[in-house]
Amino acid sequence: MKNRRSFLKKLSTGIAAVGIIPFAKQANAGEVKLKDALIHHVFFWLKEPANEQHKKQLVEALHQLTKIKTIKLSHIGFPASTEDRDVVDHSYSVSYMVLFDSQTDQDSYQVDPIHLKFVEENQHLWNKVIVYDSID
Hints:
alpha+beta
């Protein structure tokens, strides 16, 4: 949970300061501009959520996705131990968030051979995936 808090603190500090965020945990070095950026946030529900080997396989495969050149920022996470409230969903197994400079970069990511291989080799692990894409 400390990594998530650090990430969010850096995110809010960078936005408030200049609108450009220098991230410590980047897939590709450099600064990330949020103007016109596309955020792609994916939530995975594993078929066997208690199977640590399956979770480890998914996380390792997600790390391989960060090799895709159009990704500017990536974050792999798990449900936080925040309080249970009606608006909080802790039911997913793994989340994956990536930031792209543009819609075009995200479109390229979707057909990248690394992404296609990820889906082909790992889709048997999950029974549900939800994607939230947002753009400014």
